[in-house]
């Protein structure tokens, strides 16, 4: 084998090794530099800060949802919801830029207060008891259902996709209605809580899909 060929092979081998080292270093660097934001996104979380509309209202509602603990987390005495939401937003933005580590002391706080949550999570945080759609004992479902029958303006049957007729109909449709309501509640409670849809989604779900709904009267 000529010296020229040997030299070329040597250079090729060295180049491959150097390339492998460089690539390994890049991959290692990427792993080391992953931010909390990247970690949450990769884990399937949706960040409040990624909302395209209604972000300000979302931060306000997030602050309101667990005000005492969030104030303690932020080290603030701010009690006004909108201002508290702005403080929470700033806190989250700063933490999301940090490098990810399982031992990061703020990671739990970020997971609790910087990401989107379900309607069920929002209800539970508000102390509401969400009805179980799989429950075959309909006693609690019927209590809420009967209350909705008495609040016809607040909760017309048209709020629930699939329900037909109106409360003024003389025929008892409870046995047909409850499976439809349960299915609707299951779908809605598993969806994301959006502050901009609070009146159109969250409040009706609270009225129809919780034990507490049995105590909700016409005027709210």
Would you give an account of this structure?
This protein has 220 residues and is mostly helical. It folds into two domains: 81 residues, no CATH class; 94 residues, no CATH class. It has ten helices and no strands. The protein is elongated, with a radius of gyration of 27 Å.
SSE topology:
Layout: H1 3-32, H2 36-42, H3 55-65, H4 67-74, H5 81-96, H6 107-113, H7 119-125, H8 139-149, H9 174-189, H10 198-209
Helix pairs in contact: 3-5, 4-5, 9-10
Short key terms for the protein model shown above:
220 residues; mainly alpha; 10 helices; elongated; disordered N terminus
Short overview:
With 220 residues, the chain is mainly alpha-helical.
Q: What structural class do the secondary elements suggest?
A: mainly alpha
Uncertain segments are 3-25
**Number of DSSP strand runs:** 0
**SSE run:** HHHHHHHHHH
Largest sheet: none
The overall average pLDDT, rounded, is 89
Rg computed from alpha carbons, rounded to a whole number of angstroms: 27 Å
| Number of discrete domains | 2
Q: Percent range for helical residues?
A: 55-70%
CA-to-CA gap between the ends?
92 Å
- Give the helix tally: 10
């Amino acid at each position: 084998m000529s010296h020229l060929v040997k030299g070329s092979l040597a250079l090729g081998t060295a180049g491959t090794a150097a390339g492998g080292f460089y690539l390994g270093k890049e991959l290692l660097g990427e792993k080391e530099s992953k931010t909390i934001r990247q970690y949450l996104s990769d884990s399937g979380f949706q960040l409040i800060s990624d909302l395209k509309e209604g972000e300000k209202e979302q931060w306000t509602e997030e602050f309101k949802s667990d005000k005492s603990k969030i104030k303690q987390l932020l080290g603030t005495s701010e009690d006004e919801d909108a201002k508290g939401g702005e403080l929470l937003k700033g806190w989250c933005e700063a933490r999301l830029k940090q490098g990810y580590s399982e031992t990061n002391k703020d990671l739990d706080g970020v997971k609790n207060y910087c990401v989107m949550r379900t309607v069920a999570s929002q209800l539970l945080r508000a102390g509401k008891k969400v009805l179980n759609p799989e429950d075959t004992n309909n006693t609690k479902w019927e209590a809420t259902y009967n209350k909705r029958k008495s609040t016809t303006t607040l909760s017309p049957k048209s709020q629930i996709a699939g329900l037909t007729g109106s409360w003024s109909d003389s025929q008892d449709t409870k046995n047909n209605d409850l499976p439809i309501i349960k299915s609707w509640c299951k779908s809605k409670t598993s969806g994301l809580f959006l502050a901009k849809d609070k009146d159109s989604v969250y409040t009706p779900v609270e009225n129809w899909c919780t034990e507490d709904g049995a105590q909700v009267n016409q005027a709210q």
